Amino acid sequence: MEGMTERTKPEFDAPEGPAPSELVIRDIIVGDGAEAKPGDTVTVHYAGVEYDTGDEFDSSWNRGESIQFPLRGLIQGWQDGIPGMKVGGRRELVIPPHLAYGPAGAGHFLSGKSLIFIIDLIAVA
């Protein structure tokens, strides 16, 4: 876990071009701890912004504490994008609407939007 404590909230680079139609996974920092597998419970710090506007819609950093949840309860983009990540890693996910909160009008305030998350993986169980 060395190095995780000094981590700070990530900065998002403005994306170029149109939002991708499929999940994009980019490792910013490759971890060297336990590997997350589908169905695991993960402890993460994360921030999320809208692809088109760059507006932040959620951040565990702002709450000052990491969050733990089972992968299977999360949006598909997280279920597909976190497995293979190792503890200590920081990964960016660009998630199109069909892997996030569905098409526009699906009832969530983020429906129809492409999302960018930067996720720090702290622990897996």
From TrEMBL:
Keywords: Isomerase, Rotamase
Keyword field contains Isomerase: yes
Record field: compositional bias (Basic and acidic residues): 1-12
EC number: 5.2.1.8
Substrates-to-products reaction catalysed: [protein]-peptidylproline (omega=180) = [protein]-peptidylproline (omega=0)
Domain PPIase FKBP-type: 39-125
UniProt keyword Isomerase, yes or no: yes
UniProt GO molecular function: isomerase activity
InterPro entries registered for this protein in UniProt: PPIase_dom_sf, PPIase_FKBP_dom
Similarity-based family: Belongs to the FKBP-type PPIase family.
Name of the protein in its database record: Peptidyl-prolyl cis-trans isomerase
